[in-house]
Recover the amino acids of this structure.
């Protein structure tokens, strides 16, 4: 099977998420990184590209899109891993040239951009994949499959949370800096950076849509311009209720995304920091520990799992699953076929919902936590 | 040291909480149960009293209050463990005769009753102790002490939850029956039965007062007249924010009261089902496991702990601590002294706040989760 | 039901285990402590007895046995909670007068004494109960019942361990002092103090007898006269194999008794510090968490459990179960009936096996860990 | 940085460990797999090589070694991932041609082969790296560094265990088949397959050498020719003692390698299934949770860690670290320099010790668990 030729926008030296995307793209050997515009200036792009030994290094994403589109051996797909405010303009250049886009989340920094990006994706023959990477974890897939199968009955309550602690104090390094600048990050702070993951996870696992929300957002660190803590109540279509908590000021929480779903027949619990475990309680029976590739795990998890139970897969493998799903989808499109039903990845529409989530949180909070519809 | 003579109202055969109170009163050998009106009819009271071998058995609480008050060797204190709607009328009889009252929570089934009970307690020389038993756990005391000492700095976020699963389906046994009847339980279902514990714990541990709340209550089980799930956002005086979740329809949760408190210098986490552990993270340092009577535990926990670390104390010992604190307070009063500062127990005022919490939740939820002040 | 009149030998001020026995005897209201010879000198006995408000205080156990035996309202039973080397001589005085004995473990400090005590118990009409208290935990009973029911099939492997850390350094307080003195503790240090618990637990849970063992004992702390760490390999009758580790020099372990049993159909795991949980894996199925009084727990556990699941019972309740079983047995004997089959407590024969275990460990270790039969 | 050209021997279709090696070699982009003799027959080798899209496919390892050695662009290194009995003959072919060898564990199936392989490696200019992959986990490195720094003082007790359950019943698939055939696996069953990992881990983490051992090995499954459970007591040079348990018949254990080390100043605990955590207890202080790349983690762990704390790395990343260390070492050798001191990988001498461990276990067990020196 020949590898898909991949370019990258953003992700230069010291960018955590760029390195993650590169490793994720390599793990299953389906991509080959051949081109990049890795930084915001030509000089930095050149330096970062050379450090990675990239065959083709460009000054900026526009130049890359133009030239790669013209090459016979040009890239099939591009990963966009810049700060949020660049996502739309970069993605547009590739989509309009038929180059598939794999884009970091949240989709965009503004709702206006998000809607334009949806249109750009719809107008393009190319695929758009958003790396809500937590949907790639096998036991998240397992939870989704079990809920779809009715294993916990009709869903009543969804508790999702994503606390971190790295912004407990003022930080001045690069990762912190753009994430707390509304011009680059968007109006949401923790809500945009991690709340969108929690929101997406809740919808992905349950198969439910959020109808409206009431949010109380706070910037606890003095001088911070965006929220660093979000308390959100959720109402799902169909009557389920939920709570979502995201925080970057909760000491003792590194990256503690966690979801609990309760239905009228049982409950499920999953935590990102211990991702190989899924707890399932059929009501009235003992709690069961389902493990990745272990007894009780089904097809949906096995599809995206590499090694036996007890051999932990982690964040990078979950992220790699999004890339491998992307590869399957891209190869299907290349072959003129539809994307197979079992191939799952977050779409531009999921991305739009995430930006709508941030927007609704900000609006609700500004109105003293009144309920706001998601598609307000 | 001579034992305090104790009576009991309610707690007849099959009443879970009555047996708990009796064990709790015995553990530290400070009380002797000598009288009771254990059930709602004279016949049942007689039968239950005989089964326990009680020296003096009464038809009802009023008879007991009158006669015990006249005896030279009459009871010093009474435990009231009836359904909620009886608390006020029973307590009043004893308070007005100078008999100390140890009363189960929530304080009353209505806010009106709660206010009358506060007055009755204030008008009496007798003590009124409310068994918010979770405040008796040593590691809860430890958390409170650490927060008071500033170990986690200024508090920003309080996440408290109390999920159970026993009411996931319609239940017809006695415990379930009165708890889901608003006439006996009060307007709150899960909010009254367990939400008040969570609310009380949050205030006890942090030393903060809740200023207002926004609640979305739901009765998920068809036909249920009171909430079985409560989603509540909290705003504390001074600016801290919180979330409170109580549920009796969350399969896999037996009695999963849990609190997490985050300040600008660190975080604390405690879970009732594993009560001998307190997790403490000073920001920027590794998480630490403080154990009951183990390294890192302080005076406040040691005061209410009996055995060495690694020898788990449980629910009954935590409950017993409320009784032992009561005994210390009663003995101090008997000796004509003030209650020592280190003796801690929930008061009638804490009880009023709990009923205000339920009332505010019900009101807020009826108004589509708008903010309601606690002392509305 | 009238309470059993209880005396106590040992357990004066500052003796941890005496207080434990007293609380344990009170929890279920089956005993009343009325007499004591609580310390090794008449003066100390008097002081300790007065501090507890004991009705009858004696100079020593012999005086107590003689005088109580003569009283009409004399004690029915006595708790012996002295250092090990006193167990035999004290127990003998009561047994020969028909007073039931509840004795702390290990049975005696020497094998010779153990054999004499077995004879004394056999010659007496009174019962002899040894407080291997860990057999009182509900989930230990649950494990035993499941194994007896064949739930994990034929047993192959038993891993039992009991690490502590309190003797990591030289200690000079009372608890440490006599436990590290072979004249009072016996030839085994950690093997006698805690290894016997682990050994007893393994036998109790599995229903198997140890045929022989190979032990490598060490005194790591300079100057210590008895082992503070024991590594033991076990061979059970019938072919199962096991390992037993006991240590008092393992920092980070408070009282970490833990047992794991594996059969040809499944496995069970239990840990004393989290005693309300039992993990059960039927081979080829997900691991299940059985909780005290929760789904999946059976009759044997329910018999010795007081409160609902999620309300943790602890060390004192487990210890109390031994007392309550003793009360049931004593009442049956008083009524001229046999002890009911479901009433379980460790006997003098279990105690003998424990001393044989220590003796075999010491002998094996002295012979460079060659195999020694238990009844050598 | 140009990639190292890699060949592979073994690891054809359906071979779990071959796929693991390939992913591990890719994660950090330091290797490029260009040649293979992936199976035991030319036909299967061809098919497996084509399935992977390998540029150069050989009939057998000898052919591959000869032809690659002659090519200018021939492989720099080879991964040997065959059953154990082939390791020596395959490795020899590459070593004598100066091609670096990365070999799966255990080193060989016999002690004689192991000694010959040591000689072959010593006679070669090429490097020999053994994939005791668990030494690649960051928190294992952290533990090693802390012990070397004296953080837990002088080591007294080492408890290491490696239980699995997949061989609880007779299995007939390929992975099980050769592992239970002494001709291919070696005289040890569980001792060779996983006991060697546990043994290696204990030595790596503590920096200690095992002086002698006493082993009781059992084949519990009827008809099995090699041990499926090993109970081993260890004596380390310098006086520390240990226990090692390996089992493949312990239901509920997937791949539960775990090590606990206790010194006179503290303790450390690590478990492979939750590899991002290291528990550290300084004696007399609360237990601390050190996390990969989190607070309290040092340089040795950071060197081999890719992503922030809370983003779990797993088995494949730990395995990849052995490959990346190999790459660093190979590049240093290519550059005519010595291997940097911080670059750590298991050597042929570690491999010899592992085979000596198996041999000593088998010999000791045959002699009724008498002590056998490691270099017997």
């Amino acid at each position: 099977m020949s590898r898909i030729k991949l370019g990258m926008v953003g992700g230069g030296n010291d960018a955590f998420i760029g390195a993650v995307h590169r490793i994720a793209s390599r793990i299953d050997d389906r991509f080959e990184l051949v081109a990049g515009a890795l930084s915001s200036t030509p000089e930095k792009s050149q330096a970062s590209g050379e450090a990675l030994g990239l065959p083709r290094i460009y000054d900026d994403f526009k130049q890359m899109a133009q030239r790669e589109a013209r090459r016979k051996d040009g890239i099939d797909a591009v990963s966009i891993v810049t700060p949020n405010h660049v996502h739309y303009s970069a993605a547009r250049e590739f989509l309009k040239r038929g180059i598939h886009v794999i884009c970091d989340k949240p989709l965009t920094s503004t709702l206006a951009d998000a809607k334009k990006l949806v249109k750009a994706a719809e107008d393009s023959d190319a695929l758009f994949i958003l790396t809500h990477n937590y949907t790639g974890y096998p036991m998240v897939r397992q939870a989704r499959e079990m809920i779809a199968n009715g294993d916990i009955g009709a869903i009543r309550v969804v508790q999702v949370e994503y606390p971190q602690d790295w912004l407990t104090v003022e930080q001045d390094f690069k990762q912190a800096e753009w994430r707390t600048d509304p011009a680059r990050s968007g109006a949401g702070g923790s809500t945009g950076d991690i709340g969108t993951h929690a929101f997406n996870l809740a919808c992905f696992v349950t198969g439910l849509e959020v109808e409206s929300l009431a949010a109380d957002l706070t910037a606890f660190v003095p001088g911070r311009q965006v929220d660093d803590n979000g308390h959100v109540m959720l109402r799902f279509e169909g009557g389920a209720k939920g709570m979502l908590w995201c925080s970057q000021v909760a000491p003792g929480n590194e990256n503690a995304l966690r979801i609990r779903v309760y239905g009228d027949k049982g409950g499920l619990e999953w935590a990102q920091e211990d991702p190989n475990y899924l707890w399932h309680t059929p009501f009235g029976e003992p709690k069961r520990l389902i493990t990745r590739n272990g007894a009780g795990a089904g097809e949906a998890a096995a599809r995206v799992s590499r090694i036996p139970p007890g051999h932990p897969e982690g964040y990078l493998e979950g992220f790699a699953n999004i890339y491998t799903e992307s590869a399957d989808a891209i190869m299907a499109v290349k072959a003129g076929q539809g994307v197979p039903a079992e191939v799952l990845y977050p779409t531009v529409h999921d991305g739009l919902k995430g930006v709508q989530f941030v927007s609704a949180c900000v609006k609700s909070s500004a109105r003293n936590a009144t309920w706001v519809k998601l598609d307000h």
